[in-house]
Amino acid sequence: MDTFLAKIEELKREAERLKHTCRCVSTTPTGINKKTKRNIISYNNDNNGIIASPGGLFSNGITSSPCNIPGYKLDFEGPGGDGDWVTAFKADAGPWSGERLVVLSLFDGLGGIWQALTNLGIPFSGYSSEVLAPAIQVVKSRHPHVKHVGDVRKLNLSAIPEKVDLVVGGFPCQDLSIMGKKEGLHGSRSKLFFDLLRVLQIFKPKWFLVENVASMSWVDREEITRHLKVVPMELDSQEITASKRRRLYWTNIPHPPRLPRLRDHPSTSLQSCLEGALALEQKCGVVLCNNLYKGGGARLELVLDNTINKLRYIKQTEIELLMGYPRNYTNVVVRRTKITEKIIKAVRIPEKPTVALPKSSPPQTPSIRQLRKNRTSRTFFAPQVWERNPTRQESLKDLDRWFLLGNSFSVQVITYLTSSLLKSEVRFHGKAVNIVGSVREEELSAMEPGDVWALFNEHGRPNWYAVIQSRTGDRFSEIPDATGKRSITKLPLSIEMKYLEMTPAYAKDEVDEWNPQRGSGLLKLRDVVDIQDNWQAFSHRVTSYVKFENSYFVYPGNDEVWAVYHAETLSRYFVYVVESTIICARLLNDKPGQDEGFLARCLLLQKTTEHEVYLKTSKEVELSDIQPFCFRVPFHIKNEANLLKVEVSGVKSRQSMKADRETTAGYKRRKQGQGESDDDDDLDDVDNNSPEDVNADGTTAEEMLAEDEAIEVMNGGLEVVVALPDDIGDTNGGTH
């Protein structure tokens, strides 16, 4: 306790010193009315007397920060560090120069983007698009300079007189989340994404930032990526905050090169956000709009109140700190409207009316079935006292505040993702976003006729290719609504397609011509129409190919990850293609390795200790032979610019690894001696005892690879040579 009090005194002295350094002459933003001024003064009083300066919490001006003080400590990650990575980022970027940013926030909610830009000290001219009255009132009170432009569906170019630099939006997730209706991107709520797409098309900003849940279907993720033309970043907020919140972010803002290593730092623990309580866990669960009560399936953690020595539920003010907002950020005066009441009715869980029993009848004990049926409405725990200080009568109620916080951004994450805009060279090279074609929801989908898609072959490699002819059902047909009530039952998927078959010249050295080792080269379009009724057969949409009349040339394209097979060592590794070139006029000559003019500059990928995550190294290699490229690997960014999460794991991965060895013509395999080996298969990143490693017949992946192999130990057990059956070693290219 003495250490804690000493820390408080130290922070007070630091704040006093900074106040004199800033030379603040006013404690209230200018140009606002008396009502807003009263709200701000009350807000400051609730924050332990910390006064907001003109460049502080509610301003879009540049804030004075310790990074401008000579000798300021930037080691925020170390044992003695304070975890203040924002100051370190600002110090690295240097002072702001140039014009303020014009920012449009769609589905603005509590205004998380304004708080993030304020944290970074980025001056901005803000425009907010929001329809919920309580959220609008919070933004008006906390960021009075932000202008409000109404519903995103009615937003047009005339609503904003300035050239927009940045568009930010976290569109509704109810149809995408695993906890929602699962109607997909074209559902009744999540289809507002296409209004966001329309806004990008008409305003043409330099940068955009789009957020949604990471639990969405890969098909929906593929469609969003298709329309925005950027690979998403997956980031869990617990890496830099006290709460868990795994989300996907699509942005053309350059990704920060390094994520602050603060996951286990005291500054990002649940304890750092509590008021007079002891945390029983290091991190808080996902804050949702419906986990206010203990009875819900997604309730948050309980904490121990130090005053009464009893467990209690977490407070709204503590949730505000978890989400990156200042304490009492949502405690504002609002006017009750019909929209507000509608929201409250939608969120509040109704209580069943009690039925008065006849006086002569004894009390009836509800049955187990009745208790199970009504448990969601009878076992709630609502704390009697939320605040130590009573709030004003017309302030936002507890339920309203929780609802808004549960639908909000994680401010620290948005601060991290927009921190690259602090650097003048990034702002200087910004180019207008160009969305071409239709943006109408009914005209767009994840898969279009004429697309080339990759499918998994019999060995688990995604290097079967097919051209889509037509598709119906699932996401491509309207949801049936015969009863007058919206139903999420979808029609069966039916995709008509024509496979692409590798030409004899490119399939010459393949042991299994139908399941080739290589995934690039010249392919002919078959006349037969096949029908696919399962999404699991597809891997990704192919974007790097040259189309001729009845043939396609598939090759590794820029900014793609490919698996490369090295036949001499029987190993597979991953590369990130920085740049590749081919000579289109020679591709129809059908001469592999001679006339393609192929050259690819690639970066080697290094496997990390985290499952499926690879590091993009600085080692650059040039590959002029297109044959070793096995298949393209779908991926997305993980946490920071140089970390990639690849998507080839599980049973199909191990099947393809086994097939790599069995379909290599004329080879001998080498292994180390009988001792334990530290060399793992490139894609086998799960424990040996994992259930996925065991097949239906009980054999493990290692037993499958060792099947039918005769091992001869040579040189005292230091080298092992594996002799294979004659048919696999056949060099004539026969089918195996």
UniProtKB/TrEMBL annotation:
Annotated segments matching region Disordered: 354-373, 655-706
| Gene Ontology biological process terms in this record | methylation
Show the InterPro entries listed in the entry: C5-Methyltransferase, C5_DNA_meth_AS, C5_MeTfrase, DUF3444, SAM-dependent_MTases_sf
Q: Which residue stretches does the UniProt record annotate as biased composition, category Acidic residues?
A: 676-687
| A Pfam family annotated for this UniProt entry | DUF3444
First-tier enzyme category under EC: transferase
Q: Which PROSITE patterns match?
A: C5_MTASE_1 (PS00094), SAM_MT_C5 (PS51679)
**Residue ranges the record marks as coiled coil:** 1-28
Q: What is its EC number?
A: 2.1.1.37
Q: Active site: which residues?
A: C173
Instruction: Please give the Gene Ontology molecular function terms for this protein.
Output: DNA (cytosine-5-)-methyltransferase activity
- Record domain DUF3444: where: 443-568
Which keywords label this protein?
Coiled coil, Methyltransferase, S-adenosyl-L-methionine, Transferase
Annotated signal sequence is none
Q: Cellular component GO terms, alphabetically?
A: nucleus
Q: Which domain of life is it from?
A: Eukaryota
Similarity field: Belongs to the class I-like SAM-binding methyltransferase superfamily. C5-methyltransferase family.
Protein's name in the database: DNA (cytosine-5-)-methyltransferase
Species of provenance: Physcomitrium patens
Q: What is the lineage of its organism?
A: Eukaryota, Viridiplantae, Streptophyta, Embryophyta, Bryophyta
